[in-house]
Design goal:
The chain has 3 helices and 6 strands. By secondary structure, it is an alpha+beta fold. Strands 3-4-5-6 form a 4-stranded antiparallel β-sheet, sandwiched between helices.
Length: 133
């Protein structure tokens, strides 16, 4: 069941090369509710982000890095997961792992990294981003 705060309109497109594709358009962003992302990192960005932040994620592949990002960014806020809305999308932060991810359900993941100073850095970023809104 879809949340009123997270109105998602799904439209099945015609078959393309024997695959069904789903177009997802998010009409309303929520700081706390779960979101469904139509894709992982924006086209051509996964490799560059993995090169930049991958050292913080020892022993995982680029695809696993993207899967972690997608799982977190689609999460509902609660327990150790914190979040807020920015001008360009949403942010999720896992206080247990120090993983920080931002993105937009229609555009994909923008970035994922570990915050060095954990919750202190998250609160700073949240405060800064809220001033921009």
């Amino acid at each position: 069941m879809e949340s009123e705060n997270n109105a998602v309109e799904k439209q099945m497109n015609s078959e393309s090369e024997n695959e069904n594709t789903i177009e997802i358009t998010v009409n309303v962003l929520s700081a706390t509710e779960a979101h469904v992302f139509s894709k992982g990192f924006r086209k051509g960005k996964r490799s560059s982000h993995f090169r930049k932040h991958g050292n913080d994620y020892q022993g995982i592949t680029e695809h696993e890095y993207e899967a972690i990002a997608l799982e977190l960014i689609q999460s509902k806020v609660g327990d150790d997961i914190y979040g807020y809305i920015t001008e360009t999308g949403i942010v999720r932060y896992d206080a247990r792992t120090r993983d920080f991810v931002s993105g937009h359900p229609n555009d994909g993941v923008f970035t994922m990294m570990k915050l060095r100073n954990g919750m202190e850095r998250f609160e700073y970023l949240k405060s800064r981003d809220e001033k921009l809104n």
